[in-house]
Protein 1
Amino acid sequence: MQVANLWRFVSLRPSWRLSFSVAATAMDGDLDSCSLVLCGKSCVENDTAKRLKSENVLKLPDDTTKVSLFLDSEINNLVRDDDSFSPSLFMNSLSTARFGRFLIWSPRLSSTHDVVSYNFSELPVGSVCVSDIQFKGRGRTKNVWESPKGCLMYSFTVEMEDGRIVPLIQYVVSLAVTEAVKDVCDNKGLPYIDVKIKWPNDLYLNGLKVGGILCTSTYRSRIFHVSVGVGLNVDNNQPTTCLNAVLKDISPASVLLKREEIIAAFFHKFEKFFDLFIDQGFKSLEELYYRTWLHSGQRVIVEDKIEDQVVQNVVTIQGLTSSGYLLAIGDDYQMYELHPDGNSFDFFKGLVRRKI
């Protein structure tokens, strides 16, 4: 069986460094253990939870970490904070046919992405892992970061057959996040919060980063196993801002957004967008995507190498190419595909252009 890493676009950076809460650490007893709560939307997923617990098959890449599995009915056996993620509220808010229906929740975990990617073959497609605190979040190359409470951190599984469109899944995810926030605000009668997309996978609010997307993939038995990670700062205004801080500035008397409602709305949106994406391609979502991202008409500096010298030029972004990179036009009216140089955290520094 051939397994190959296909691609990785990483956006969340190692800048969210805050200490863990004592209560969350105590839930797992020590740094070398973690608790995973298994929960399903229906009896089908709950039967899967019972089987996984009885077989004790869920593991972490770090063999030294002891994993303890609990069913949702046993959640009272864990010491939980008042602001811990509520699996029951999430499930009651969820209305999907596939995605999010099997949940793994942990009060404190190294990485939600490691859980779903390492156990991909054991989990139903569409399974999601959520953690209140994440202390080895996955980032670009080998970077890791610590994410505190108040952040919505989750990873879920997707299967795809066409490798040509796999890199575009991050754009579908980004769009589903922004539309989910809008839906929750509308349903609760709250002021509009305008979360924007910064290419390729950052989420911005009022000019400040509030989240990002991570997608990784392996190829097995003619299927791409895609693990999707999302981080969204809902209720912690450090180090930049968060959704609820902006909401309170707009309307101090407003009720606050809840992580469980946002992730449930996300899967509702993502399931619809994903079906469109698979059936009709990304073109079916492009118009909405371009209304949501920050870059239409943006002028950026790109680099060309001429006789061993780097020359900078300015181009104007027009949209996306079919491969998911930036489409731009130069002052010479030549069309270009823009690629990140691979060395900078900021994808817009030193973009490299290729003629189309």
Protein 2
Amino acid sequence: MFAPVWTRLSFTVQSVPGRRTLGLFSSPAPSNWSKVVSDAEKIVGYPSSFMSLRCLLSDEFSNVAMHVKKLVGTQHPLLNTARGFVYDSRNNLQMRGLVVLLLSKAAGPSHTSSDLLSHDMVSGIYPSQRNLAEITELIHTAFLVHRGVVNLKELTASDGLLKDMEFGNKMAILSGDFLLANACTGLAQLNNTKVVELISSAIGDLVQGIYYESSNNTEENNITTEVSTAAWEEQTFLSHGALLAKSCQAAMELAQHDKKSQRLAYKYGKHLSLGHKLNSDLQPFVKSNVGEQVPFSFSAAPVIFHRHIIGPERWQQQLQQAKTMRNQLDYAKLLAAVKSEKGVSSAVNLCCYHGNRALEAIQAFPSSEARSALENIAAPITKF
């Protein structure tokens, strides 16, 4: 099977109203984070970026790369995604596969397994679990590429020619489909019905989650829609947490671990994903200085919680007050308004909750280097 194409993604969408942002694993302390990732990769046997080697050398990918070159000079997101082949120590797309591998090693072989041979393991991980880690990355990358499709109705002159942007959209759709098809082929080759069911349902969750995000990112919904904390968690889990949570559970199933181990692995993946998303959403609000123009997404957790607390009428008033004479947003004024209420503190509390729950879940596994690495990955969630 092919491994993921865009393994290290440094692509960030400008955080403006009505435009989607991509939630990635990130750390407030890039230098420390790099060491955490580097140490974890040594534990599982090789740098996780090697997962992409087979696909990068394939003829199919070479054809895709040649077509992407035609987008040079435009502002199409697919071009930025392709540039993200270079490792970025702040954003780690490959983290999902790495977490699956670490959990596989932390759990070890099942004592009840009868048809799994320990000598097939490499660095304490079964080949099927390594394949699963690659499949997880491949699915995630496919959806990131799909989500880079540009709304042609919102194009500006600086974005590029309409025909180029249309071509970029076609390439994003076809490339994403290509990656997803290879993931499904690899999934079938695992020959495990329950794992196929788990990962297939995760793909369905991703589709549903992205649909929710798209429908909530219209200009009208940015002003009028109220989303509770519970609703935000449910929707965010679909688009950012389900794939990792179910992949962690599937890794336990491949090693024939019991339901308790599967449930704990699922919880670790779920809470880790939600915690990292909250931490990422909080960065503009906890790192910015007074009066600093820091653009942020209206779908970020602190903004969602703030809007729910103050109500749609007051939110609309704050939006109007933050607009300049040119009808542009004064982000410093709007950011101060959000920070003045309890939206930020609510998001911080929820972030710490998910971070602690992830650490809690992993404690049930035997003490080891792999478990320590998983703890180190979860620990930065609660630090700002």
Protein 3
Amino acid sequence: MSLIAKLAGSVGAPEPAIRLLLTIIAGYPIAAIYRLVIMHQASKPIHHLFFALCGSFLCVFNYGFNTYHSLIAIWVTYLLMRLLQKSPKHLVAVNFVFHMSYLLIGYFFTESNDYDILWTMPHCVLVLRMIGFGFDVADGQKGKESLSKDQQETALVDLPSLLELTAFAYFPCAFLVGPQFPYSRYRRFVDGEFRQCTGFVQTGVKRMLVGILYLAIRQAGSMVMPESYFLTDDYRNQSFIVRLIYLGIMGKLTLYKYISCWLLTEGALMCLGFTYAGMNDKGEADWFGCSNVKLILLETGNTMGHYVQSFNVNTNHWVAQYIYKRLKFLNNRTISYAAALGFLAVWHGFHSGYYMSFLIEYMIVSTEKQIETVYEKDVLPQYGHILNASVPFKCLKFAALKSYNIIYMGWCLTPFVFLSYSRWISVMSAVNYFGFVYMAIWFLIYKIYQFQKRSAMKSNNVLQVQDSKNSENEKKDS
């Protein structure tokens, strides 16, 4: 047995997971070596070579021979960039189709009923990076007046070499689990734009410590309540309220699995001095430019919308910039939003659980907007002066929203966690499909509400017409 296999066996974790964790942690010594040795080298190729070698070595450490998949993606992207540079539309289309097709073929041959740590995991991160790179190269060939503000910031006029593209793709602190960032940020970092700012090491260490805390909570929680527990009769035999609470805890622990990896990665990027985002209101350097999670909003939020805003932030930003906003020509935000969620589902793989999770997210976000509209337009104008002054109502509202927030997130993540239809439908049936039931009840209430509103508006219009006619008749009589 290898040393890594022995370590995995001693802690009771899969070997690929241990390799992943060690690779993320390796970002910290890499950051130290870069800051102490490489950063002061005047030759830019040395910087690119350092990142390319470190990242490719870590990729081989995790996936061995399967590293060739990422190399093919990088080389093909470079070739397409050179061949189709003067044809932006063809570059975007061919680059997009190639990378998504390659990823989906990889899923087809490797997917199982579990969430496996295979070469497809970092490859899905690389696919977004290469697709976004293709868009940026295409934008660089257009006039500035035709680009949005975001597109102007990321457009590439001067094309990188193959070494530079490889370093960007294999950037050691981010190629495994993200975060996403455009090539323009990497170029600015290597050019030294962020070096005059301070505070990145302290911020990075704090982020690392928080990541360790979330990882510890996740590991302790999964030992007490493993995901397999929700497929057992023991879970089904619990009371309905207990089943809902457990489902909410499972959702939280699932989020913490991703959050802990992102926090540890962000800490390494911060220690590298890569995450500069300008100066904050206090006149201090902001080092949260690549943060993938907004912890305060995530932990204090009470709606699905808050989760969307605070979780996997950079991926959501990528989808917004390169998918959602590029569909502006459809002139329909609902269709664009649905298309963006559909892309995310396909990007994750073929499991039905991915598609169901994003469908549920879409339904919940839509339902929340409807409830918010009714509350603000009809409830608050009539009863706001009473509700806003009532402390018991505020406490009850907070408790209700927080409970809904935690439990419904567990419901939404159930298909995402259990992936195959037979497993996630089993867990949903164990809680009596409550999420669908509640949304169906609200759907009926909302339709009745809309009908009554339209009827009231028609009645008011009829009364107004009658009043105007009566006033005209009175004028004639007079």
Protein 4
Amino acid sequence: MAAMTSVRSSLTTLRRLVVSHRLQQGPRLQALGPAPVVHISTPLTSIHWRGFRSSHVASGHVLPFKLSDIGEGIMEVTVKEWYVKEGDRVCQFDSICEVQSDKASVTIASRYDGVIRKLYYDVDAVAHVGSTLVDIETDKAPEGDPEEDVVETPAMSYNHEKTQATPAVRRLAMENNIKLSEVVGTGKDGRILKEDIISFLAKQTGAILPYEVQNIPTPVISTPDTPPKEETPITAPPAIPRHIFSGEDRTEPLNGFQKAMVKTMSAALKTPHFGYCDEVDLTQLVRLRSELKDLAESRGVKLSYMPFFIKAASLGLLQFPVLNASVDESCQNITFKASHNIGLAMDTPQGLLVPNVKSVQALSVFDIAVELKRLQALGSAGQLGTADLTGGTFTLSNIGSIGGTYAKPVILPPEVAIGALGKIQVLPRFISRDEIAKAYIMNVSWSADHRVIDGATMSRFSNLWRSFLENPAAMVLDLK
């Protein structure tokens, strides 16, 4: 490759000397007509010379030079710079132009020796894959099918060498996660061929070849000193020992709680649901609970976050009573419930149960904590009664206590709304002056009956509920 570069450099120097000599001699007279007047206002020492700028006339075939598929899904490019003009002679692998897409900037090189006859695009014009970039007049027509355009792009290496490969070779490398900068090209001027990619793949452990090249043999360069390659027998890996399981399938009838859940959920999924999710910053609530926890424990109650969530829901229902309502089976009548009987989904030994705290609108946060303690104790002992499990008007499900962020809760008919609370996470959040601080974040997922509740109502209720939790002092003013 170094030798080829040296030869091309010498040819470039020779062309410069010939053109410089002609310029010093002045313009030649034409056989017919007056002699043209040539004005040279730029000193010869300031002219920027390129190896293929000398203009010669070629007599032969005019071939369209089309923009081939560059790869990576690129379908159109913008012409950023022309390295040639009409009348320039180019050699194979000479750079013609630079094009750019939203994914890459590449240099297009010539695949012919000839003279540029026509440029089809101006600078900053958009060219599509398959369209003709230039017409090149060659001394003779190429034999066989024309080769693909050579795309020359900077390799990802510290020495900034360039790799030359056709789009098909680049696609093969991309499909197998191969960097072209790591492959040694055996083509002209170091051009990477398809066989080079296959050879590189064969040397990698566990490499997977595309279907169309799996049967192509790996090229081997032999020298007189290369010893003959010995045939290595292929042995199959040992069989994986299989464990024998003696267990048998077991069928048993659903119990009473499971049958009730089947009936309830089958009825619930007849309701057209819609979902709404939001994020709540509980940083102030975490601080307030920490201050009240000792007081609550002195009264025999473990103060969790759930009493605050339930009380905030009741305060929001006072402003949006349609969410604390029920509809009949045919959805012809809606009943607005006076009492806020807010249910809490519990994971008990009997399964998922939803007891409810009655008349939350008349209770303090501490009263709610006492009632929750009673319901949780009954649930763990399997002693929740009918009075505790019926009469609910609104439900919250605390999935975060088990481990979850978002959910799509199912409404418990005849209720019209339900919320699922995610786990509390410590996350960074922006505060004033673009500073980042630690925040306690919880996500909530609401579901509502879209026959009687619209998205705007659900959003406004969620915003109000969130405001009570993000500024919780107002909820505990009636703490007894």
